[in-house]
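Sequence, please.
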């Protein structure tokens, strides 16, 4: 083996699953010097997670690849509940929309994890970042010297690529990475790999996105806490032949005696079946005879009976144990972080695993980038733990209730058991969670307190939640567009100005005054923190929505900050994508955005500050805007950077 080389990087990401790749997208896009290492030689191609929530697709949109997802994914439209009737025969008892109307501009979709990873990999590559495969993190050292710029040192092993595809086992079985496999089996397999050379990577920050058996977590001495429910499920991706009437919609099926089953129709007429295999006593291990494809299909047949099931083509299958586990410590000295399965695991029923993992690093990425660029105080990194641990704790509570009701025997006729009404009510109540749109971050240095005054300004804009979207009309080209499509993930903050009725001269003057103050007052963060010679919209971008018709005023009548000039190839060009009207478009719908956001179209308007990850920071009146923004940014920005 050759001698150990040493290198330096701003961020080292360990693990190229969904969490690591999402972080890679942020950092690549914001120009941070990053490496992303992955011990597996090849990426996964089938199986694993498949459900993508509305909120995650909104994030895909902000990175520019939601369309690719939409083209390939199977959009889910309906969920049907099958329950036993009084004669214990399975019948459909309720049909509901799979995505609650108006919860998002996107609908849930399903597509295999490997393709989602492809989109993220391509997005990273566009900005020059590639996954370095066959590299495993092996040793960890932290330099306690406060002056150290690169305090984390990770020794990695460059592995000789294995002949067998480590990523997919034998191609169709996901058993080798399942949590029914003891740690020893997985670690021994990895430890046996031949090492060609080692390398010491010194990093300013390290993020362990290395999955449920996280190596990083172990180096920090942190533990996943929680329970395994001793309930086992099988999962199959198959092209089935069945007489179940509903196979191309989602089916939640509880049999009277034989357990439960979830049917998720996938792309290419594939169907994913989650099949309950049984509940064991504490400490009991699942019989290996149950850990076979034949056993999982046999269980599915029993649960679905009298409906029939043949699976001539099976793309992938696995067996897993349900459990809700959380590591409450997710950061070490604000230099090492855990994201994704490395800090939480839960049952896959509500499709949360991959989504929550990506949303962890979506929360972290822009904060890391701002600290590395020296613009923001590293204290903001503390909000990663407070925001994500709270979100995950709530997820685990929901998941526990869902898993319990999913795995319980239904009450039938005189027999006591899980109430199917209660189960369906929980499923519907949790629509915001299962769509990913229910995450609200509490007050912190990055989220203001809520109060009645702010509520009166914009009754339906929830501080701490993500900014929702409505169709509005762009002044410059009369096109109906989704407002939130402007919230591109590029690290910029957004100031959303509900300007009100521009036909009212007093209101128009108030907008002019606000724009003048934002560009000239020394306390304005636009004035104070936009780097010299940079475009005026490069740190905070103003997006203006009027309640008056677009035709009432010419585009060029508006204050320049609402349609600023930016430099491209040495020329000053006007922008056309920051000014909108809340009126129906010619062809694409729209109108009613003010009512949706709870802002009075004839009133004084208001201003909403939105973070780079689209979460709402605060709602302000025009008059208090500059001062409130000034206080907020002064508390989080590095003052020397001015
Ligand atoms: P992972 O996807 O696990 O990625 C972690 C990566 O880190 C891996 O690629 C690993 O090789 C790498 N790594 C680990 N240690 C090191 C090291 N020392 N050095 C370098 N690299 C390292 N979710 C659902 O929602 N629905 C499902 O049906 C479903 N089925 C699943 C079936 C299986 C068998 C598994 C394993 C998971 C399943 N999941 C499912 C969960 C879902 O895949 C995860 O929630 C999601 O992948 C988490 O993403 P992540 O990036 O946090 O971790």
């Amino acid at each position: 083996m050759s001698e150990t080389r040493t290198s330096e990087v701003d961020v080292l990401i360990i693990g190229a699953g969904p969490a690591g790749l999402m972080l890679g997208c942020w950092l690549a896009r914001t120009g941070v010097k990053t490496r992303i290492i992955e011990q597996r030689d090849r990426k996964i191609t089938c199986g694993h997670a498949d459900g993508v929530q509305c909120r995650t697709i909104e994030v895909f949109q902000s990175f520019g690849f939601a369309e690719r997802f939409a083209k390939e994914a199977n959009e889910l439209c309906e969920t049907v509940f099958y329950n036993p009737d009084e004669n214990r025969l399975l019948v459909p008892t309720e049909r509901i929309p799979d995505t609650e109307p108006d919860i998002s501009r996107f609908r849930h979709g399903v597509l295999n994890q490997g393709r989602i990873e492809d989109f993220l990999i391509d997005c990273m590559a566009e900005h020059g970042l590639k996954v370095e495969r066959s590299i495993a993190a092996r040793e960890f050292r932290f330099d306690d010297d406060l002056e150290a710029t690169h305090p984390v040192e990770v020794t990695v092993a460059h592995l000789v690529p294995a002949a067998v595809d480590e990523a997919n086992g034998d191609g169709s079985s996901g058993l080798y990475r399942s949590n029914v496999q003891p740690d020893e089996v997985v670690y021994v397999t990895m430890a046996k790999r031949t090492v060609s050379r080692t390398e010491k990577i010194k990093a300013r920050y390290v993020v362990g996105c290395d999955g449920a058996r996280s190596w990083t977590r172990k180096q920090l001495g942190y533990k996943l806490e929680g329970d395994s429910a001793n309930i086992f499920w099988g999962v199959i991706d198959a092209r089935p032949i069945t007489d179940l009437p509903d196979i191309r919609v989602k089916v939640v099926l509880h049999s009277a005696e034989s357990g439960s089953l979830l049917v998720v129709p996938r792309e290419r007429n594939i169907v994913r079946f989650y099949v309950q295999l049984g509940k064991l006593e504490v400490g009991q291990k699942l019989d290996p005879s149950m850990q076979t494809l034949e056993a999982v299909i046999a269980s599915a047949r029993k649960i679905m009976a009298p409906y029939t099931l043949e699976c001539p083509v099976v793309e992938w299958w696995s067996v897993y144990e349900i459990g809700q586990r959380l590591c409450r410590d997710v950061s070490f000295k604000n230099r090492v972080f855990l994201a994704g399965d490395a800090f939480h695991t839960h049952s896959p029923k509500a499709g949360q695993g991959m989504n929550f993992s990506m949303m962890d690093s979506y929360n972290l990425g822009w904060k890391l980038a701002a600290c590395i660029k020296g613009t923001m105080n590293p204290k903001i990194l503390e909000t990663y733990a407070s925001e994500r641990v709270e979100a995950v704790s709530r997820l685990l509570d929901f998941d526990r209730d869902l898993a319990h009701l999913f795995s319980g025997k239904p009450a039938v006729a005189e027999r006591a058991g899980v109430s199917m009404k209660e189960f369906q009510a929980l499923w519907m109540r949790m629509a915001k969670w299962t769509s990913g749109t229910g995450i609200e971050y509490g007050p912190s240095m990055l989220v203001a307190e809520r109060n009645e005054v702010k509520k009166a300004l914009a009754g339906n804009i929830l501080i701490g939640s993500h900014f929702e979207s409505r169709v509005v009309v762009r002044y410059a080209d009369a096109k109906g567009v989704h407002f939130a499509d402007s919230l591109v993930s590029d690290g910029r903050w957004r100031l959303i100005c509900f300007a009100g009725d521009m036909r009212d001269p007093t209101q128009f003057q108030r907008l002019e005054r606000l724009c003048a103050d934002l560009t000239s007052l020394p306390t304005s963060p636009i004035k104070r923190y936009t780097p010299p010679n940079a475009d005026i919209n490069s740190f905070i971008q103003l997006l203006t929505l009027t309640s008056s018709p677009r035709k009432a005023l010419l585009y060029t009548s508006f204050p320049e900050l609402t349609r600023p000039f930016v430099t491209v190839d040495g020329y000053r060009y006007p922008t056309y994508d920051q000014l909108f009207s809340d009126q129906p478009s010619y062809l694409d719908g729209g109108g009613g955005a003010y009512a949706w956001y709870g802002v009075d179209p004839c009133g004084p308007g208001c201003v909403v500050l939105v973070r780079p990850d689209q979460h709402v920071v605060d709602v302000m009146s025009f008059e208090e805007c500059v001062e409130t923004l000034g206080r907020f940014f002064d508390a989080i920005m590095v003052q020397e950077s001015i």
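The mean pLDDT is 91.
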